[in-house]
Amino acid sequence: MFSTNKTLLPTNDVFDEYRYFEPETEFKTFRYKDLNIALTICEDLWDELPSDNEFGEKRLYGISPMEELIKNKPDIIINIAASPFSYKKFIARENIFRNKANKYQLPVIFVNQTGANTELIFDGASMAINPEGKPVRQMPFFEEAVETFSIDELISKPADTEVQCADPVALIHKALVTGIRDYFRKMNFKTAVLGLSGGIDSAVALCLVAEALGSENTTALLLPSRYSSGHSISDSVKLARTLGVRYEIISIEKTFTVLEDALSQLFAGKESDVTEENIQARIRATILMAFANKFGSILINASNKSEAAVGYGTLYGDMAGGLSVLGDVYKTDVYLLARHINKEMEIIPESIISKPPSAELKFNQLDTDSLPEYSILDPILYQYIELQKPADSIDHQGAGRHTVDRIIKMINSTEYKRYQAPPVLRISSKAFGNGRKMPLVALY
Q1: Are residues 133 and 195 in the same domain?
Q2: For residue 6, what are the contacts with CB-CB under 8 A and spacing of at least 6?
């Protein structure tokens, strides 16, 4: 029996390995029959990033485990990993292994976990690479699979022409379905409920949940108010029927009116403002949570990353839920997901995709009343959150430095909201939650 321990213990992003483990300090290969095998664990072969990676950085450690193991003249390198999915990372990851195989002129076998644990989703996509640094075979994303190679075959086999860059939107779709399915399975829950507003976020979330759990295990509640447009209801009904999910229509108008009357004396002399908007969102959350409690379901949160980043959501209202499905997906990418879902037939009504986004908490309300266009907002968010650029280095695409400063202020000042948000399925290199620990209160 041979065992090996990990040497390089990352403490970045979601990793906090030094809290629980001590690093290996001895470097040994092991023999199996006639093979001398260098077994590495995740970061031990990822001690640097390729120079062409998107983030323009190299991970530097005081020691390189492979540089030590190569002294023992191994015949093959095996890397076992639990590498969380990021739609920007898989190409850089492949380049790491290709470069290592070419550098040491040895075949590399990368074996990665698949499935999901809480917010982390593991994509599988294990691969075999020949000594020239060319992929011989790549296993499927987000699926368990087994394939056997002889060492001679691995060394002599030409590159697999089928190994191609996968569509990032398709991978995000599969990742989210995997994350939802495993979250429910491991929590011993079978059914989900979500509020279907007639907007694109809840529409995409409903499609993902129905695919992950089955339409028979998914319920949509339509909760209109005086501000809900007629097409929001009809579009939602059409979508629910197309998916075959149960839906119920429960007007919040009566409850909203009762609360307005109850607060009228306390609020006398005050103009209607965001307070009344938030009351509507919290009424909806109360009804949704009541359903979840009564029928043993998990409430799905459909807020997207753009909204979460700038605090464009109601605490204890539309931010409520047991799992955030789109909380790591920018609004512009939600539209891409919708198009992907509709690639073979119209599942999400075109009118949902094409209409201007609105919370519908007051008459003629649009998201752009409070936010820049998402085509401007999302690139700024990406540069600040994922790339961690300072304000003066962010490309504002002609929107002006004042827009960048305003957006950054909104991000920093609403950390307290995200702290109380549900777990977010992670599909990027920097998601809100465990991988982005920020103070709630600071002199920003």
Answers
A1: no
A2: 17, 21, 23, 24, 41, 42, 43, 44
